[in-house]
Design brief:
By secondary structure, the protein is mostly helical. Helices cover 59% and strands 0% of the residues. It is built from nine helices and no strands.
């Protein structure tokens, strides 16, 4: 008579299971870190007024309004600008925008929480695309696709390929009890 045992422990899936090439894993890690920094940097610049796109007098810590500043300067010809101004042209909109930039940037750079960062970041990019459609107002180089699409796709690719496992905290994060219980936090 033979006996079999069943495995009760959850097997953690890693990037190595998905991507066999070491070089591909490294390229995905670099892409993850780059897109993370492209979210973290505006947070830092808008918070402290480092002078790149936000002067010190318009910094968030000095009473500046980052989301309101963007939404307030929209072309009135944009059909959805009024809707987004009604929803986010307030201090709550500024806070949500800044927390989003910080959270997405930190998650991508650290390599943990990539699914949430990808979903929220892609949603932020969709909103930013819809509020300033490239075929209305100023002429664009491409009337349909702009950098918001690229950024959203990089976020999604990083999460889908578990890019946080290479040069990040992804493997450790996946093994924590919270992620074992709630895998969508991966």
């Amino acid at each position: 008579m033979s006996t079999t045992t069943t495995q009760t422990a959850t097997t953690v899936r890693t990037q190595d299971d998905l991507i066999r090439s070491v070089w591909a894993r490294r390229v995905l890690a670099i892409g993850r870190i780059v897109i993370g920094f492209s979210f973290l940097w505006p947070f830092l610049d808008k918070t402290f007024g480092l002078g790149f796109t936000t002067p010190a007098e318009r910094a968030w810590i000095n009473g500046g309004t980052p989301a309101q500043g963007y939404l307030g300067n929209l072309d009135p010809a944009q059909p959805l600008s009024g809707l987004f101004q009604d929803l986010f042209l307030n201090p709550v909109g500024d806070t949500l925008f800044m927390i989003g930039l910080l959270g997405i940037g930190v998650a991508m750079i650290a390599g943990a929480g990539l699914r949430i960062a990808a979903v929220t970041g892609a949603l932020l990019m969709v909103f930013m695309y819809l509020v300033a459609l490239p075929w209305i107002g100023e002429p664009a180089t491409n009337p349909i696709i702009d950098s918001h699409w690229h950024e959203a796709l990089l976020l999604i690719i990083a999460a889908a390929t578990l890019a946080g496992d290479t040069w990040g905290l992804g493997k450790w994060w996946a093994s924590t009890a919270i992620v074992q219980r709630f895998p969508w936090l991966r």
